[in-house]
Amino acid sequence: MNSKTVLIIDDEPDIRELLEITISRMGLHTEAVGCVADALHCLASRPIQLCLTDIKLPDGTGLDIVRHIQQHCSDTAVAVITAFGSTELAVEALKAGAFDFINKPLAVDQLRNLIKSALRLENSQASPVDSSRNTRLLGESEQIRRLREQINKLARSQAPVYISGESGSGKEVVARLIHANGPRSNAPFVPVNCGAIPGELVESEFFGHVKGSFTGAYGDKEGLFEAANGGTLFLDEVADLPLSMQVKLLRAIQEKAIRRVGSNQEIPVDVRILSATHRDLAKEVAAEHFRSDLFYRINVIEVQVPSLRLRREDIGLLADFMLEKIAREWGITAPQLSSEALQALNRYQFPGNVRELENIIERAATLCEHNCITPRDLSLPTHTPSDHNTAANVDHLTAARGQFENYIEDIEKSIMLAALEETQWKKTEAANVLGLTFRQFRYKLKKYQLDE
């Protein structure tokens, strides 16, 4: 680590001295200059692994440094130092390609965390996203190829990313790939569904609490920010956060520190924020359901995940992959899609996107005969909304279908339990009683966790 060089650019001698002392104690070599011209000379004359630059400089700005590094020194990570509360400048720097930012007055712990993350980054050449830690972004369409390229670029940054897309399109898959291909890949990836946390528990879930801070707080509890420290916190359905919590979340992101409920002690946290929602967040801001300052902070870079109906050429590939996965899990020969079944899938609108396709394929694999899936096995709805209306109706359709499927599954599970009890848990006999093939019965046993 002692061979790595950090270039410090600040026109204040005291700041330069503080940075040099702190960084030198980490076993790193430093170079310190006070203007853009000297910085460019250093970058041209020797290898620099990390550059720390102030925003305001006598002969230009830190943004000039960021842009130069992006064009001419792609192996150099760059972070900016901003006046406290200069969120707009920090966001502009991140959009220009800065790795991260830190506010004045400088906090030594935050500075060290930033440097450690940046120098891990320099050695973390991202592997192709398709082979990344059991998470795959399947498809050969142009939309998916562009998305893969975007993921690989974003993985090298620490900028907050907002992932937009319809329900079931794969937003969490994208978040996991950004994490897995970046310098935080060995640290925790903590996903949280913001809409699934009861309103009265949101603050405690995010920030933790101390013993006795409220009724039921029988001990100290670590929150999600602390659990994700050093890694990535993925805020799924972020639009569902209560306004009161949005204020506290913004403060935690800006100050890179949290306080547990009931405590006055501030705990520094080093967390990258990725967020997602199926809603139009800009419209939520316009309707005053979501704070504009938080939106501005988490939406530094937006990634759009395409709906399945916009990349129909990937449907066959996805279906085949899902069938191979089912075959491995069930220990059977993979069923095949008939040409008529594939045509039916290609005509379908998929309001539930990839998640819906997976459910359809699993169901068809249990119903098919002779290992061949026909259109009848797919059980596709006879009417779906047109492309024009799909986006507007997808939330309603997905919610209604989910409620219906949950209701049916509860009934089916009860019937299976009754058949097992009647046959004294002899599975072959229970399958015969219900008129199911053993393959179908075994699948449902696993689905309802009745095979243990």
Topology:
Elements (H helix, E strand, L loop, with lengths): L4 E5 L3 H12 L4 E5 L2 H10 L4 E5 L1 E2 L2 E2 H11 L4 E6 L4 H10 L3 E4 L4 H15 L19 H14 L5 E4 L6 H10 L8 E5 L8 H6 L16 H4 L4 E5 L6 H13 L1 E3 L6 E3 L3 E6 L3 H6 L5 H7 L2 E4 L10 H16 L5 E2 L1 H9 L5 H15 L4 E2 L1 H4 L8 H36 L4 H8 L3 H10 L5
Parallel strand pairs: 1-2, 1-3, 3-6, 6-7, 8-13, 8-14, 9-10, 10-13, 15-16
Antiparallel strand pairs: 4-5, 11-12
Helix pairs in contact: 2-3, 6-7, 13-15, 17-18, 18-19
Brief synopsis:
By secondary structure, the chain is an alpha/beta fold. Helix content is 48%, strand content 14%.
Structural features, described:
The protein has 452 residues and is an alpha/beta fold. The protein folds into four domains: 5-122, 3-Layer(aba) Sandwich (Rossmann fold), CATH 3.40.50.2300; 129-304, Rossmann fold; 307-384, Helicase, Ruva Protein, domain 3 (Orthogonal Bundle), CATH 1.10.8.60; 402-452, Arc Repressor Mutant, subunit A (Orthogonal Bundle), CATH 1.10.10.60. It contains 19 helices and 16 strands. A hairpin with a 6-residue loop joins strand 11 (257-259) and strand 12. The longest helix is centred in the last third of the chain and has 36 residues, at 387-422.
